[in-house]
Amino acid sequence: MRSQGTVVRWDDARGFGFIRGTQGGQDIFFHVRDFRTASGHAPRIGLDVAFEQIQVGGKGPRAVAVQPAGASVQAATKPAPSAKAHRANPRSSSAGPSSGAWLVLPLMAAYAAVLGWGVWHQKLAWWIFAASPLINLLAFFAYWQDKHAAEKGRWRTSEKLLHLWSLAGGWGGAWLAQQVLRHKSRKTSFLQVYGFTVVAHCAALGAWLQWVR
């Protein structure tokens, strides 16, 4: 049986929100992947919707098959345009490093060489070279954790924190996570800031090596 309600909270960055049913009671969680509309528009606060309610063990009620009120049931089950386009282009959806690899991989190799050179000439502490792989591994894990949270409808890692990992030197692991996990690899605004963190970190490293005698 389908219920009616209104979207009272929507977090576009995290891809989830809450619906308040017409009968009152506890606000009901829903994820963007459970929202279907022929227009392809995202949910918004104040939107009247129809949905099916399920119970998730220990987590309270959850709304699925969410659609704008008055839309047909067929529209609710129709795959989102992005998902359809994703299937129509299997080459672009295949997992594995690809985007910008011709630039990033040589840059990663050059970065490792510069770190090694800095340690050899005592311009950098040895632990900086040793810590670099760990920072990149932690950056990769932060992306994985964020994607896992998005799929499960849980609280996600902020984009600012992801960028801080890149700025701290984990930009290589961040890039690898974007390609392997297919996470944050299509959001232009995010990638622009990510690119800035790479440039900023490398520039800071270069300035330090130039300054230290």
Automatic annotation (TrEMBL):
A GO cellular component entry from the record: cytosol
Cell compartment(s), UniProt: Cytoplasm
GO MF annotation terms: nucleic acid binding
Chain segments carrying region Disordered: 75-98
Gene3D superfamilies: Nucleic acid-binding proteins (2.40.50.140)
Record has Iron-sulfur as a keyword: no
The keyword Phosphoprotein is assigned to this record: no
Domain spans labelled CSD: 2-68
Keywords on record: Membrane, Transmembrane, Transmembrane helix
Listed InterPro entries: CSD, CSD_CS, CSP_DNA-bd, DUF1294, NA-bd_OB-fold
Main location: cytoplasm
Transmembrane segments: 101-120, 126-144, 193-212
Record-linked SUPFAM superfamilies: Nucleic acid-binding proteins
Pfam families in UniProt: CSD, DUF1294
Domain of life the protein comes from: Bacteria
Name assigned to this protein: DUF1294 domain-containing protein
